[in-house]
Write a structure and sequence with these properties.
The chain is of the alpha/beta class and 262 residues long. It contains eight helices and seven strands; from the N terminus they run βαββαβαβαβααααβ.
Length: 262
């Protein structure tokens, strides 16, 4: 299927690794032009069609400047993928999670999405079409413990914002959707400072054992494995296409069958 993305201009946040890098590559493979923002963008330097912009997306001005770079260079923004995000495990329990901890989670996971969307909607409204895809998380609605309480709240806000923007801007030709991955084989889960390693250090086991225990405690995967970044990217790119323009306000779960209820 031709997704009709040749020549489209896409802005991707958190584009230098993990899901963001996979999304960048998938968009480029479909013929899109990508402006990618991240703290460091060396991984984008040698990828034809990608422009990496190094910036701190939690800076209130940064998401807007990233979108403006796309407008300055190409005259428009057709696609926005709000991917940037991070998690800090709160293993001491809810009463040890401060206002500052919640603010960090909101700044990193929600306000980055809010500000980039606000900036991208201006050129999208002017041109009469556009697509926004927000990377949320199953933690937005499935919360097995308090270790991710602030992250889950921030991602729930992302899902809520997604639905609100879809309702308001659908009549303007802009479709807005969310993708909620379960555990994905990225550094967030599997890196040296990722979820498995952090829990392993706290509980006195190796990262592999910690990972198995966490997944078992969540109910396990029907597929028996983590989702890959490329699988998430495939879903994102489909939702970014005008071929799915009447799909809006939806939250698509990709979790290997982790969530057992509807």
């Amino acid at each position: 299927m031709d997704l009709g993305l040749t020549g489209k201009v896409a802005v991707v946040t958190g584009a230098s690794k993990g899901i963001g890098l996979a999304v960048t590559r998938a968009l480029l493979n479909e013929g899109a032009i990508v402006i990618g923002g991240a703290h460091t963008v060396g991984s984008l330097a040698e990828i034809p069609g990608a422009t990496g912009i190094a910036l701190d997306l939690t800076d209130p001005a940064a998401p807007g400047s990233l979108v403006q770079r796309a407008v300055d260079d190409h005259g428009r923004v057709d696609i926005l993928v709000n991917n940037v995000g991070a998690i800090r495990l709160r293993l001491a329990g809810f009463l040890e999670v401060s206002d500052e901890d919640f603010q960090w989670a909101m700044d990193m996971n929600f306000f980055t999405t809010l500000r980039a969307s606000r900036a991208a909607l201006v050129p999208m409204i002017a041109q009469g079409y556009g697509a926004i895809v927000n990377i949320a998380s199953v933690n937005a609605f499935y919360q097995p413990d308090g270790a991710t309480v602030d992250y889950g709240a921030a991602k729930a806000a992302v899902v809520n914002l997604t639905k609100s923007l879809a309702q308001e801007y659908g009549p303007r030709g802009i479709h807005v959707n969310a993708v909620s991955p379960g555990p994905v084989s990225t550094d967030l889960w599997l890196g040296d400072k990722g979820v498995a390693a952090t829990v392993g250090r706290a509980t006195g086991v190796d990262a592999a054992t910690a990972r198995e225990r966490i997944v078992a405690g969540m109910g396990g995967f029907a597929t028996g494995r983590f989702t890959t970044p490329e699988e998430v990217a495939t879903l994102v790119v489909m939702l970014a296409s005008e071929q799915t323009a009447n799909v809006t306000g939806a939250n698509f779960v990709i979790d290997g069958g982790l969530i057992k209820t509807t």
